[in-house]
Amino acid sequence: MRAGSLRLAAWQPHARAVRAPKSMHDWLVTPGSLTARLVASSAAFRVRRLHQYGAPCLVDEAQAIGLARPQRVWEREVLLECDGKPVVFAHTVVPTDCDASDWPLFSALGERSLGTTLFYDPLVRRGQLEFARLRVDHPLVRRAHAVLGAAGPLDEQTIYYARRCVYRRRQGLLLVTEVFLPAVLTLGAAATMKNID
Fold first, then answer.
1. Does residue 137 belong to any structural domain of this protein?
2. Would you say residue 65 lies in a domain?
């Protein structure tokens, strides 16, 4: 296991570059709100907040949010669940120099979806999506496994697909990374949407 792989992911500007199976590719390129698609694809949708506090950002996140080096940020992690099954591990970081006028609802989200705030606030500007293949030694995959209580050693060959996007509101930046869990592929026909890559 290389030390560099623990900190970095090769983020790509096009979803096809990560060579995801078609069913996963469709999820990666979901237009608009992923939350809205998950709600439409299940009878019961839930945001399970894992934590929200100050923590050091990952090396590959620092540059994305305008930091010269990794440093302390506000971090929020949640599981998005459909019909009781975790389908997405979502990780959000916000630089600590952002204030309440930049992201007024961030500290009070609780178990509400961040997506409902981002997509319905006219002041929010969405950046370009980036995509990556994550292996089991990536910190976000390890965190997801820890929360899910995955038993036994992890299969080193397993690939997880993720996407991320920077959002801007006033002077504030916010980075959302979504790691798609295998159960997302079990969602019903309502999950099938026409996407453009």
1. yes
2. yes
